[in-house]
Structure formats: C-alpha cells, structure tokens
Design brief:
By secondary structure, the chain is of the alpha/beta class. The chain is built from 17 helices and 13 strands. Helix 6 packs across helix 14 and helix 15 crosses helix 16. The termini are far apart. About 1% of the residues have low confidence.
Length: 426
C-alpha cells in the first residue's frame, strides 16, 4: 500500500476524534502515515489534536501528526483533504437559528434561511480553500462535510477543478435504519434527492420492492432535528421513505412551533455539549472517542468518510450515497445540478447510478424548487448579489413571502457583515 497524507481542515471540531477512529479502524486498507490537523482556533486545535495523537499512538501509529494554523502547510501534497469548517463558529449558527424565528421562519443550520446564511459565509471560504488545493495538491480528493454540504458541493464541482465529493451522515443512517428494520444488510436500494432533501425510493430484496411495507415516519431520526411524527395519511401520500429533514417541509408549522417554544436553540445545546466534550478531551488518560460524542449528532460520520476514501483508494467499486453532479442520472434534473444519490465509487471517483423510481411530481416539484434556491444561493455567495440572495429566499418553499424575505435578509446580512466581504467590500 502506498503511504498517504491526510489533511483535516477544521480539525478543532469535536467531531475529529470520530474521524480519527475511522482511520484507525481502516489502517489495514488505508496506509495513512501523515496527518495534518489544521484550524484557526489554536486552543481547540491543541485540545482535539492532542487527543487524536493519543488515540493514534495507543493503536501503534508510528507516523507523523502535525497541528498547524497554516492552511497551505496542511494542504500541500495531501492525498485526501477532509473539510469540516464552520465559518463564524457556533455564534453564527445560533444567530442563523434565532433571527429567522422573529419573522415566523424556521432557523436551522442547513435548511431554509439558516442554511442560506451559512452558505453565504461558507461558499467563498471553501472556494478559497479549493484554489489552494488546485495549486498545492492538484491530485488530492476533497471530502467535504462542511455545511450546507450540498450547496458547498454544488459550488465546488461547478466552479473549481478540485476532485470533490460532498458527504453527509444522513444517508448512511437512513440505510442503517432500514437494515435494522428488516434484519439484514443484504438489500439493494435507490436513493435520490439533494442534501437534506432526499428519499429512498426503492428497497429490493430477492428482486421484490418492499418499500410500501417499510414506509415509516423516520428515515433516520437525527439528534439535531426536533422530533415529530407523521400520521398514516401523510405517510401514504409520500411516495418514498423521506430523509428526516423533510419534516421541516411536511410539518413546517409544527417544527416552527417547536423551535419557538424551545428553551435553547440547537446551536446553544451544541455549545454546551462541545464544552463538556472538550473538557473530557483534555484528560491525558483519554485515548479513545468518548461515548458522549454521540450527543453531538454525528453518528457514523467517520464511517461515511473513511469508507468512501477506502473505495477510491483501493478501487473497490462499492456503492455509496454522495453528492455529485447529476450527469443525467435523475432525468428531471440538469446535468450540472449537484444531487445526493447512490453512486458507484472506485479510483475514478463516484459515478451516479441511473434513477428509475423517482418519476413522481411529489419529488420532482420539491427537488427542482430547492435546487433553484441552491443555484441562486451559490451565485449570491460568489458575487455578493443582493438580488440573487432575495431571489433565492423568494423561490425557497419554506420562505416565499417578500416582506418576510427582505426583512430577514437585511437583518441577517448585517449580523454577518464581518463574514460577507462580497456583499460589503465593493
């Protein structure tokens, strides 16, 4: 096996031990001998990085682990680059969640107005990272988890030359949920959609589609989404098993009510969870990922990332759900639309599997509307266009009202002024 270098951008994240655990579990097939952990927050980087070092050494790692604040140093000559950045930190996320509520709109990290503002901050930074990768590690694969993952992937795949796969732990959790329900991993499936707007449209066992018997309200319930239940009539109206994020669309008022009534936003809860985790990470005797990390909501995060890398590096021809250009796989979407879909993954990258069970206007209408929003959001983020930003909010199914859209846009742009040079430094 060839020796590999991994760069983790945003390595001060409390998720990093999950990723390190994934590398340890796959050391028999992935020979990572160099790890560069990069972050702009030195204190968090030192805490998380020291735990990562203890985890690796405890399992016999003899290679090099470097903690750095220098992005170029981390990227240079890397084989695989993992991005998990949060521009503006948790303070920006909390604003994304709280400001929309004043306008009767959902505030969420990736969905609706919150996801929109997260994209405006994140897309320019990711494009800058991509430009460095083009120069310093042109053959590297960029595995992106930075939210909103689908919009970031659309920007990277359509506006850079970097080999990019957008990942989320949602699909792997949905498939695990189905496997648990039917008692086997021996099934085929079709998965189509956009990131956090997706459906499993078939589940095949022995040549038979058992989807109707499996249609339940969950998909995989995510810790960062307020719990709701679908009634039987709604379940029957949905022609597939929906991602749990679709509860924001199907039960909008109920989810809005839960957010308004919550004592703390999800971001505020995450701040408390992260503080507790970082205190644990400081323990010099801790040499493994603590169980409490599951409270952060990143279940199977490393499995999704490292298994895809394994499939690329070892030319495995495995199927994984990733965010890639549609390239004709979903007939009602444009070729350059980035979609979240089942793909065949090997050393060439990820090739989307032709979708056969999604010719349903229930799915078509929502996917096309949200993709229009995503494309306008990428344009707004790149060009600092208020017109595109307003258009994005107006076309989004969860927003649509001009008075709400212009009010929340003005307030959120001003609140994020320090992170939006494209809008304010003209």
């Amino acid at each position: 096996m060839r020796e590999l270098k991994a760069a983790i951008i945003g390595a001060g994240s409390t998720y990093t031990p999950e990723l390190i655990e994934g590398f340890i579990d796959r050391k028999g097939s992935l020979n990572f001998q160099t790890f560069y952990l990069m972050d702009i927050d030195k204190e968090k980087l030192d805490i998380v990085g020291n735990l990562a070092e203890r985890m690796l050494k405890d399992k016999g790692f003899k290679g090099e682990l470097v903690l750095t604040l220098n992005l170029d140093e981390a990227i240079a000559d890397a084989d695989y680059i993992f991005s998990q950045i949060r521009v503006g930190g948790m303070a920006a996320r909390i604003r994304d969640e709280k400001i929309p509520l004043k306008y009767g709109l959902l505030g969420q990290e990736t969905t609706g107005v919150g996801g929109f503002m997260n994209a405006l901050r994140t897309v320019p930074v990711m494009l800058d990272i991509a430009s460095k990768i083009e120069k310093l590690a042109p053959d590297a694969w960029l595995i992106n988890f930075s939210n909103p993952s689908g919009i970031v992937a659309d920007a990277l795949l359509n506006h850079t030359k970097v080999k990019t796969l957008g990942l989320c732990n949602g699909p792997i959790n949905m498939l695990k949920d189905i496997s648990k329900t039917i008692g086997t991993t021996d099934f085929d499936y079709e998965y189509v959609g956009l990131n956090h707007l997706a459906w499993i449209t078939s589940v095949i066992i022995g040549g038979k589609n058992i989807l109707e018997s499996l249609k339940v309200s969950s998909g995989a319930k995510m810790k960062n989404i307020p719990a709701v239940e679908y009634d039987d009539e709604l379940i029957q109206a949905i022609p597939a098993i929906p991602s749990y994020y679709l509860s924001y669309y199907y039960l909008r008022d109920q989810q809005l009510k839960k957010c308004l009534e919550a004592e703390k936003s999800r971001g505020e809860v995450c701040v408390e969870v992260e503080e507790a985790l970082l205190n644990q990470y400081k323990d010099p005797n801790l040499k493994k990922k603590p169980e409490e990390l599951a409270l952060r909501g990143g279940a199977l995060y490393s499995t999704a990332a490292v298994s895809v890398v394994d499939a690329i590096e070892n030319d495995k021809n495995e199927y994984h759900v990733v965010n890639v250009k549609n390239d004709g796989a979903i007939p009602f979407m444009q070729s350059d639309d980035v979609v979240e879909i089942k793909c065949l993954v090997n050393k060439q990258g990820a090739k989307p599997v032709q979708a056969l069970n999604c010719d349903n206007r229930f799915i078509i209408g929502l996917m096309q509307a949200v993709k229009a929003y995503e494309k306008l959001t990428v344009s707004a983020a790149m060009n600092g266009s208020r017109s595109d930003a307003l258009s994005a909010l107006m076309v989004h199914p969860l927003i649509g009202d001009y008075n709400k859209a212009i009010g929340v846009l003005n307030e959120m742009l001003e609140a994020n002024k320090d992170y939006l040079p494209n809008f304010f430094n003209k």
